[in-house]
Amino acid sequence: MMGYELSYISMIIHNGGHAVVNSNDFLTLRTAFAHPTEIQQRGSMNKISTLLLSLALMVFSVSINAVDVETPDNRINLGFNASEKAEFLSEMRQMLTSIQGIMEGIGEEDRELIIKSARYSGNRMARATSDAIKSKTPASFKDIGGPTHMMFEELVIRAETDDMDLLASFTGELMKQCLACHALFKTD
Ligand code: HEC
Q1: Do residue 58 and residue 91 come from a single domain?
Q2: Relative to the CA of 93, which ligand 1 atom is closest?
Q3: Residue-level pLDDT at 70
């Protein structure tokens, strides 16, 4: 009975072993299994069963955490070559620069700064994107990217008249586009 339970638990430990090697709990656990007679001397079978059950739960929960850490990167690779990637990432950094200028403009109630910053990532950027990049990006990418540039254009217009809190909310909405695309695609 005892032997069966021990081998069952050690099988579980073996499966999740890589995840718990550094954990103090696991060291305690290994010590316990290295000296099973001590456990036998100390407690009844009931206590041992309780111990085994809680150890099993502990190992299971550590294994679940390990799965989170090792989640594979499932984003779609856009398959750019080195120069396309450099151009694309440069556009991306420009988008971040736009967001920076927009936020600063909102904070300082500087409408001109918001307009200038937003315009940079609007249709102008969409038009400047090279054909090589356009031909490699799938429809699901363009479905997010196109509206993003349009939202920058909308911000240019809204910045003429909207209150700053509305502009901040709209910028927050716009940035959901960044998040949506970043969750789906990668450059390599
Ligand atoms: C249509 C898709 C798409 C949209 C929309 C988008 N991005 Fe990106 N962005 C990407 C991809 C793909 C990468 C590369 C990620 C990777 O390879 O890990 C990237 C990378 C970046 C980088 C890293 C640049 C570098 O030099 O490594 C920044 C900064 C960035 N994006 C900012 C933004 C901001 C800010 C927005 C929104 C205003 C935005 N992006 C919207 C697709 C998008």
Answers
A1: no
A2: 29
A3: 74
Task: Determine if ligand 1 sits within 6 Å of the CB of residue 93.
Answer: yes
Per-residue pLDDT tens digits for 110-135: 999 999 999 999 999 999 999 999 99
CB of 186 within 6 A of ligand 1: the answer is yes
User: Are 50 and 122 members of one domain?
Assistant: no
Q: Which residue type is seen at 13?
A: I
Q: How far apart are CA 50 and CA 2, in angstroms?
A: 12
My answer on whether 169 and 114 are in the same domain is: yes
Q: What are the pLDDT digits (tens) for 7-21? A: 444 444 444 444 444
